[in-house]
């Protein structure tokens, strides 16, 4: 159960888990939804202090014959800014933070950036990127910069 995973993380164990969500930031609401309302604040604190990273991936069809699927990814690393957002209950603000230079330099990546890279490297078709994007307008702006 997720409760057992949280307890293991609190005692210093390395915990890997999966949860169905459409982004790293939606993962928080999915996790909180597993608990009663009065437990959410405690879960929030555990995540803020114990979580190291969330990785979201979606396997997309490629343009290559020998590679049928390739992952587009989103990476959220729990740095001090992310930790503050979690503790204050402002997880919705993490989405904007993912696009900052500070987050990118820390190794984070938002999903649209991953899609742009895959289009640029000719792994996926632009149509696939558009169909997969959580924010098509932003994706289109980034793709236009490519030329």
Automatic annotation (TrEMBL):
Residues 1-69 form the Bacterial type II secretion system protein E domain. Gene3D superfamilies: P-loop containing nucleotide triphosphate hydrolases (3.40.50.300). InterPro entries: P-loop_NTPase, T2SS/T4SS_dom, T4SS_GSP_E_ATPase. Signal peptide: none annotated. Pfam families: T2SSE. GO terms for molecular function: ATP hydrolysis activity. Belongs to the GSP E family. This is Twitching motility protein PilT. It comes from hydrothermal vent metagenome.
């Amino acid at each position: 159960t997720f409760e057992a995973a949280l307890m293991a993380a609190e005692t210093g164990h390395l915990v890997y888990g999966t949860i169905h969500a459409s982004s790293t930031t939606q993962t928080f609401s999915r996790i909180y939804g597993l608990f009663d309302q009065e437990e959410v604040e405690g879960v929030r604190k555990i995540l803020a202090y114990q979580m190291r990273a969330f990785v979201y991936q979606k396997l997309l069809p490629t343009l290559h014959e020998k590679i049928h699927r390739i992952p587009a990814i989103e990476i959220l690393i729990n740095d001090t800014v992310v930790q503050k957002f979690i503790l204050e209950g402002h997880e919705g603000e993490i989405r904007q933070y993912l696009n900052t230079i500070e987050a990118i330099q820390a190794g984070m990546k938002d999903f649209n950036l991953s899609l742009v890279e895959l289009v640029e490297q000719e792994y996926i078709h632009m149509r696939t990127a558009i169909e997969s994007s959580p924010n098509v307008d932003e994706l289109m702006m980034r793709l236009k910069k490519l030329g």
